[in-house]
Amino acid sequence: MDLRSYLDRQGVAYSWSHHEPADTSQDLAMKEHVSGRRVIKPVVIEADGRPFICALPASYYVDLEKIRQELRANVARLADETEMSSVCGDCELGAEPPIGKLFGMPTIVDESITRQEEVTFQAGTHEDAVTMNTDDFIRLTEPQIGHFASIRA
Fold first, then answer.
1. What is the pLDDT at residue 31?
2. What are the structural domains of the chain?
3. What pLDDT does residue 84 have?
4. What is the pLDDT of residues 89-121, one digit of tens each?
5. CA angle 23, 27, 29 (to 5 degrees)
6. What is the pLDDT of residue 87?
7. What is the C-alpha radius of gyration for the chain, rounded to an integer number of angstroms?
8. Distances in Å between the alpha carbon of 83 and those of 34, 44, 128, 139, 151?
9. What pLDDT is attached to residue 35?
């Protein structure tokens, strides 16, 4: 599904920007001149055989034990690149938007994101980004909200 068309159909206000290639979410924060806490990165996990997109700040990582508990799963693991490319189709690997509905899977958002007024994320390429109001992002993704991210030391 085309992200821009999806956002337009959902009627959310957003800005679309084009920048020099950003290979990581932290790079995106630098290119967009925003805090890494405001940039959302997606991490695809599998919990008891079911895929989820975890949305968390760029400067954090998924704590697999916490996500396993949040999802009440027996087993949780990170998806590998092959699994991500098969799930996220037309997106460049590592530039997937953190909206599970685009890929037919649920989204779980770390509660730390809800403290930000706006969020920014990759728009399917390493050169495009979307910025929107956090409340709109939450409404758009209809996520489960939990506490599963830890900050990098």
1. 87
2. 3-151 (3.90.960.10)
3. 64
4. 677 777 889 999 988 999 999 999 999 999 999
5. 135
6. 63
7. 14
8. 30, 9, 23, 27, 25
9. 87
